[in-house]
Amino acid sequence: MKLLKSLDELLYELVSWLLFYPVTMWRSLMRPLRMMRYADTELADRPEDQYEDSLSPPLFLLITLLLSQGLSSAIPSVIDPSAAMKQLGSASNLLIARGVIFGIFPLCMAGTILRWKAVKMTRNSLRPPFFSQCYVAAPFAFLLVLGIDLIGVPDEKGVTAGMLAMGGALTWYIQAQVRWFMHDLEVGVLKALIAVIFAMLVAVVSALLVAVAITMTAKDIAPQ
């Protein structure tokens, strides 16, 4: 009976994602600041009452990366789309790797906010800004990866669309972050822009280093 009850809850949870995922994506795209404030306030509720009308931010980011991974395998590319999966051993390992890499962006943004506020960085203090950042990191990651995939379409048929997707992702993400930093840190546009650019540079460099480290590790442990 306990097993059946657990399966009931799992099935309901999975099916509910079909409704709440597009709702969460639409809200994150159209009203990113409202969703980030929503993430902050929801953490103050009891665990069973949190995110009743949307997906939790880390789960939202992971599902977005999963959909992006599936879309990448469906888009024709000059690069073998299964090469990374073969190198890491499985699709789940690739998803975890992508989650770590793109999780660096909300981590760096959240860390920058805490440092600006002179708040000691602990697991508890980092959680609220990290959760709020995941809501904007998900659309950014989806559009950015989509742009990269389109650029890799054979015969350069998707270069223009890919560049537009990547440019749109960066523009949307940076403007949302600048507005959030202005609101959360109570600073002007210039200071907010400087803080966002600094955090972005740290995030990009860190993500590249982690990606290289994952690739090298996968090569070392791959069977000869």
Can you tell me about this structure?
The protein has 224 residues and is mostly helical. It has one domain. 80% of the residues lie in helices and 0% in strands. The chain is built from eight helices and no strands. It has helices at 2-30, 32-42, 57-74, 83-88, 91-116, 123-151, 159-185, 189-221. The protein is globular.
Give a short summary of the structure.
The chain is built from 8 helices and no strands. The chain is mainly α. The chain has one domain.
Enumerate how many helices there are, as a single number: 8
Q: Could you say which structural class the secondary elements and strand pairing correspond to?
A: mainly alpha
- The number of E-state strands comes to 0
> How much β-strand is present in the residues?
under 5%
Radius of gyration: 19 Å
Shape assignment: globular
Query: What is the H/E string?
Result: HHHHHHHH
Helix content: over 70%
Biggest sheet layout: none
Tell me the domain tally. 1
SSE layout:
Elements: H1 2-30, H2 32-42, H3 57-74, H4 83-88, H5 91-116, H6 123-151, H7 159-185, H8 189-221
Helix pairs in contact: 1-2, 1-6, 2-6, 3-5, 3-6, 5-6, 5-8, 6-7, 7-8
